[in-house]
Amino acid sequence: MHSKKTLGLAATAALRVTASSLANVCTTSYIQSALPLDAVSGITLDSNSITANAVYNYTSEAGDLWIGGKGLDFCNVTLAYTRNGLSNSTTNLWYWLPSPEQWQGRYLTTGGGGFSITSGEAGLANGIVYGSVAGTTDGGFGSWSNELSDVILAANGTMDFDMLYNFGYRSIHEMSVIGKEVSKNFYNASSLYSYYQGCSEGGREGWSQVQRYGSQFDGAAIGAPAFRQAFQQVAHLAAAVVEQTHDYYPPPCELEKINNDTIAACDKLDGREDGVVARTDLCKLHYNANASIGQPYSCAAVAATSGYTKRQMAQAAEPAANGTVSAKAAAVANDLWKGLFDSKGRQIYVSYQPGADFEDAETTYNSATGQYEATVSGIGVQWVNYFLKEIISTELSIKNVTYDTLRSWILEGMQKYDSVMQTTWPDLEDFHNAGGKVIHFHGESDNSIPTASSVIYHDAVRKIMYPNMGLNESYSALQDWYRLFLVPGAAHCSPSTDQPNGPFPQNVLQSVIDWVENGVVPERLNATVLDGTTSDVDQKICTFPLRPMWKDNATMDCVFDKASYDSWVPELDSIPVPVY
Ligand SMILES: *[C@@H]1O[C@H](CO)[C@@H](O)[C@H](O)[C@H]1NC(C)=O
Ligand SMILES: *[C@@H]1O[C@H](CO)[C@@H](O)[C@H](O)[C@H]1NC(C)=O
Ligand SMILES: *[C@@H]1O[C@H](CO)[C@@H](O)[C@H](O)[C@H]1NC(C)=O
Ligand SMILES: *[C@@H]1O[C@H](CO)[C@@H](O)[C@H](O)[C@H]1NC(C)=O
Ligand SMILES: *[C@@H]1O[C@H](CO)[C@@H](O)[C@H](O)[C@H]1NC(C)=O
Ligand SMILES: *[C@@H]1O[C@H](CO)[C@@H](O)[C@H](O)[C@H]1NC(C)=O
Ligand SMILES: *[C@@H]1O[C@H](CO)[C@@H](O)[C@H](O)[C@H]1NC(C)=O
Ligand SMILES: *[C@@H]1O[C@H](CO)[C@@H](O)[C@H](O)[C@H]1NC(C)=O
Ligand SMILES: *[C@@H]1O[C@H](CO)[C@@H](O)[C@H](O)[C@H]1NC(C)=O
Ligand SMILES: *[C@@H]1O[C@H](CO)[C@@H](O)[C@H](O)[C@H]1NC(C)=O
Ligand SMILES: *[C@@H]1O[C@H](CO)[C@@H](O)[C@H](O)[C@H]1NC(C)=O
Ligand SMILES: *[C@@H]1O[C@H](CO)[C@@H](O)[C@H](O)[C@H]1NC(C)=O
Ligand SMILES: [Ca+2]
């Protein structure tokens, strides 16, 4: 299988001069010699497509999910491959390979967000900070900026299954296999450590690999994964249906007030008053929005923006609002927290935790009628139109749509996409047997992917892999290699502006590396307060199912309580098959 690679190296060896400098190895001919031509079957790597340029003294800017670094030297490589027997099937790959001096024996695959399969240079830049090669792919979508939704339908009714499967798991896999082999050949290394990092859709992409290719990565840092897509995207539409069902369309200011009151009231349930709801489970069990009824609210006018809100909807202008919180608004909020139930009272899915802002529920002001109207989430509409109805349209009327309609859309999505987009295969035996380690984290105030969505999967893996063990024993077995951390006060793949004193695990990949390479078990995950005012900047996060509880407002314990635990994993008895 590797004979061509060996031949390639031998054939070009005579052309090479001293190996150590970046300039010597960052050439198209050297990259050509490093190409693993037979590593992936069914494709043809195009040696002539290679571009390579050396970059020196690069600064990688820190972000919420990136630590950043300076003085980075690397080789910027792009290349393409085609799928044998298919026309117009070019997939583009992009790798950043640290200089031989800066390489620390690591390879990293990075992922995207929304319906985008790549984070481009931002992801690559974070990888090289760790002395790691970093790779990304355009998924074969024809351009680095195209998303799956741009290409999934060739026409109304014509799904492009190649694009779908490329996005589902195939392209990331191919890019990872090629990237690992290119790296070994590039540095003349017999082995390396391989990692994955991504959040949101990038988190789903990480699971798509860990679930299928057990030995592909030694470690994975996975945030708030957008998996269980059949539920996840339809659930984005639930808030608008809740408002329609109540026939009440709260001004955004009214829900914002309820959220502010919720954070203020639930802050102390974790034993420390710091503006952070570290126990949204206790908040869910003991608080309800009726406490806000009659409370005054007011907000300044908001100008229309072309920016994005609510996952791809433009922001309409809103007039200044004031009033007092109504019983109807409280009822809407209570239903938004409760989760999705069908007309028979059976639970369909979970929702966001109290303390997460009500982004999906944000109404739009209609200046012609002077009324607020329900607005459906852009990504939820894309799912129903592109993936279920198979029409190229961004319009979806929710008139007549009920909780039962949402349920039927979820079941349809499960049937149609179980093998490609659901990404919740719960048996991780191959990954575990290969010695893999995964740190999975999720903001406890995530407003886009329910925090409980991650808990449900983690719990499913525990039950599938350790069916004969009790709760403590099975969690302890699972924690040897797969740990889930719920991040207090954090929003979707970022800190929350509503709870600025919350810690965030900005350097989670380092924790994965330490676990894989040095056996340092992340008993509690390192996190840093990035935006707040607290003096206690470096904090730790409890491993689920243990939950934080502060003593004397000063020391954090990680405790177990059954009622809280149960609140994370309700029985989804409206769904006739197991939900992993
Ligand atoms: C790998 O080995 C080849 C052949 O000896 C050499 O030309 C090349 O510079 C080496 N690469 C690195 C990164 O040391
Ligand atoms: C590297 O970049 C920094 C700015 O980030 C600059 O101050 C420094 O002079 C540069 N070093 C070299 C060797 O170019
Ligand atoms: C990397 O290469 C691509 C393709 O040639 C180019 O568009 C991009 O600007 C390069 N990036 C850097 C940092 O050199
Ligand atoms: C392939 O791409 C070419 C050039 O972009 C285009 O003209 C042609 O229609 C495409 N063929 C198919 C089958 O998509
Ligand atoms: C909610 O709290 C934030 C932060 O304190 C504040 O800026 C905002 O005005 C409050 N909103 C309402 C509706 O009270
Ligand atoms: C509790 O601790 C937080 C964070 O250190 C601090 O901001 C707050 O003032 C403390 N509250 C009380 C009641 O001591
Ligand atoms: C909230 O108050 C309404 C009356 O306005 C009542 O019907 C409802 O049961 C209350 N909800 C909760 C959760 O207490
Ligand atoms: C609420 O609106 C009324 C009427 O528009 C206005 O007189 C009042 O000043 C506003 N109150 C606040 C707190 O903005
Ligand atoms: C695709 O279907 C949508 C929804 O029915 C329709 O609005 C659109 O015009 C159709 N496009 C084409 C090219 O037929
Ligand atoms: C809603 O249902 C009514 C009655 O069945 C029907 O007339 C109407 O066309 C439906 N509206 C939409 C948007 O589907
Ligand atoms: C499980 O462990 C927790 C502490 O980690 C303890 O409080 C609890 O009692 C244990 N439960 C069982 C069933 O052993
Ligand atoms: C975590 O924080 C501790 C200090 O509390 C530090 O010693 C350790 O290096 C950090 N680990 C990682 C992976 O950042
Ligand atoms: Ca608190």
From TrEMBL:
Official protein name in the record: Carboxylic ester hydrolase
InterPro entries with a match to the protein in the record: AB_hydrolase_fold, Tannase/feruloyl_esterase
Domain of life: Eukaryota
Annotated family: Belongs to the tannase family.
Keywords assigned by UniProt, alphabetized: Calcium, Disulfide bond, Hydrolase, Metal-binding, Serine esterase, Signal
Keyword Signal: yes
Pfam families xrefs: Tannase
PANTHER family xref list: CARBOXYLIC ESTER HYDROLASE (PTHR33938:SF16), FERULOYL ESTERASE B-RELATED (PTHR33938)
Signal sequence, start to end: 1-23
SUPFAM superfamilies: alpha/beta-Hydrolases (SSF53474)
Enzyme Commission number, as recorded: 3.1.1.-
Species of origin: Phyllosticta capitalensis
